[in-house]
Specification:
The structure holds two protein chains of two kinds. Chain A is an all-alpha fold. Chain A has helices at about 10-140, 145-160. Chain A is built from two helices and no strands. In chain B, the strands form three sheets. Chain B has a three-stranded antiparallel β-sheet, with no helix packed on it. Chain B has a two-stranded antiparallel ribbon with strand order 1-2. Chain B is globular. Classes of the chains: A mainly alpha, B mainly alpha.
Chain lengths: ~160, ~375
């Protein structure tokens, strides 16, 4: 059957054509296309893996931030607590100190008042004594005159001696 | 699944209808011939229309592009004839000199089967001169044209990759070619050849596109049936045999000549079988592609010729059948477009599978 008999011409030309096409395409097409495709694929794979890496990094950074924030919050609470404690202490100390000072001042004032009072009393006592002596001296000097006069005099004296 | 069964049932329906119609037509023809008055008429008409010859003319190689014959004049494109014979040397001339086999030229004549034979001065066959026909027949010319188209398209795309770099999105025809190339690389190369696939990619891609472009161009009406020619598929099969043989290793041959784990007597049977298998595999490739493409072309020509077969019975039948025939032709045409891709893929894939089998031992050793 002629259909199954390969023609020599077509056989040879096909062989030549295939070899030529193979080498031309290998040199000018397949190598560059395949390397470009591979390059692109590895590029995409790299981009995806690096994106994944960045995502993980971001997550870890976020965690770190959160931890830092928590730590800071705790520290702040501690600091506030401490500050409050210190301020309370200071206030109470100041109050105590003020009270002590006040007490001291009052005590000192009382002491001074008492001192002065005593001094004034002794002074008064001294003056009264002196006056009594003076009056009794005058009385004694004028004892010899009349009795009425004596009495009026004493009265007079007594009037003048009216304690200021 | 639904689509698949739909397609299947459609196919079954189409083919059964075809069989029914075809048997009817032969039946009708027989009836015609049986009636005496119409016998002469039918004979005359069958002389004018020889379907099997027309089909063969369509699927076979030829020394010219023959388009039509109107009123005894051939409308055709003559192609160059290159003949070599040890006695007469090389002769190059146009095939129009043969006058469609009617005249001899430079001592050569075109036989009825389309073979160039050396003739003597008086026109009788010269047995002493052996003529080797290297003519640029229509298959050769069409193959060159389609390969030129292939080179233009593929190199254009390759230049785009070079120009735009790897990291820009593909554009234009690149979009059509890239999925095919990645498909061949991933589904044919990587899945069959493993880590060694890169070495074979240029060959596999060339084979695939070589077959595909010739299949597709061969589907254009009026063109030759290049991939449905046994010489074409023979060359591809021999090349794939060579590639397979060059990929083999000791492990592969050991399995053929001394299959392990088999009793001695079975080995005696297995060895010739295995050895034959080495050659049968590419032979099957050759026949598969050839038969598929020839069958497709025959079916399409048959459907077209049905119009004329009916027309030779009566004009009404011819006109009446033409829509049916054209509908079937279009249907088969779509299938043929599918087949063009599938056959190119199957040839490439099976070649890769065979190369993979040849490589297998080394692959296994590397992993054990």
């Amino acid at each position: 059957m002629e259909l199954l008999q390969p023609g020599l011409g077509l056989l040879v030309w096909t062989l030549i054509a295939f070899i030529v096409v193979f080498f031309i395409l290998k040199k000018y097409a397949w190598t560059s296309i395949l390397t470009a495709l591979k390059e692109r694929e590895t590029g995409i794979a790299d981009a995806i893996s690096s994106a994944e890496k960045v995502k993980l990094e971001m997550a870890s950074l976020k965690n770190e931030n959160e931890a830092l924030m928590n730590h800071a919050r705790e520290e702040r609470a501690v600091m506030i607590k401490e500050a409050k404690f210190a301020s309370d202490k200071m206030i109470s100390e100041a109050k105590d100190k003020a009270k002590a000072e006040y007490d001291r001042i009052i005590a000192e004032a009382q002491q001074a008042i008492n001192q002065q009072k005593n001094a004034a009393l002794t002074d008064v006592k001294n003056q009264v004594g002196a006056l009594v002596i003076e009056v009794s001296e005058k009385i004694l000097r004028r004892e010899l005159a009349n009795k009425s006069e004596q009495e009026s005099y004493i009265k007079q004296l007594a009037e003048t001696v009216k304690l200021n | 699944m639904v689509l698949k069964t739909n397609l299947k049932s459609l196919l079954v329906a189409a083919f059964s209808l075809f069989i029914v119609i075809f048997s009817n037509s032969t039946f009708a023809q027989e009836n015609n011939q049986n009636t005496e008055s119409e016998a002469k008429k039918a004979e005359e008409k069958s002389e004018g229309l020889k379907p099997s010859e027309l089909i063969m003319e369509h699927i076979m190689d030829n020394h010219e592009f023959h388009f039509a014959e109107v009123g005894g004049t051939h409308i055709s494109l003559p192609l160059p004839v290159i003949v070599y014979s040890p006695q007469r040397g090389v002769s190059v001339f146009s095939s129009s000199n043969f006058n469609h086999g009617e005249t001899a030229y430079q001592g050569y004549k075109l036989s009825e089967k389309g073979i160039i034979e050396a003739v003597k001065e008086d026109g009788s066959l010269d047995e002493s001169v052996k003529a080797y026909d290297f003519s640029l027949t229509r298959n050769v010319v069409q193959m060159f044209l389609s390969l030129g188209l292939l080179l233009y398209l593929v190199i254009g795309v390759a230049n785009k990759y070079k120009k735009n770099g790897a990291n820009t999105a593909p554009s234009g025809f690149q979009n059509a070619l890239e999925p095919i190339i990645t498909f061949i690389r991933d589904e044919v190369g990587k899945s069959n050849l493993g880590h060694k696939y890169e070495k074979y990619m240029p060959y596999l891609l060339t084979v695939f596109f070589f077959i595909l472009i010739n299949n597709i161009v061969g589907l254009i009406p009026g063109t030759a049936n290049v991939t449905g020619n046994i010489a074409f598929t023979l060359v591809l099969a021999v090349i794939s045999l060579l590639v397979i043989l060059f990929s083999t290793n000791g492990h592969f041959w050991m399995h053929i000549f001394w299959p392990p784990g088999v009793p001695f007597l079975v080995k005696l049977i297995l060895i010739p079988v295995e050895l034959l298998g080495v050659f049968i595999k590419p032979a099957a490739l050759m026949i598969r592609l050839f038969a598929n493409m020839v069958a497709g072309h025959i079916v399409i020509t048959c459907f077209i010729l049905l119009i004329f077969i009916f027309g030779s019975m009566s004009h009404v039948a011819g006109w009446g059948f033409s829509p049916v025939s054209i509908a079937f032709t279009i249907f088969i045409y779509f299938i043929e477009i599918l087949v063009a891709f599938i056959q190119a893929f199957i040839f490439t894939n099976l070649t890769a599978v065979f190369i993979g089998q040849a490589l297998e031992g080394a692959h296994d050793e590397a992993h054990h």
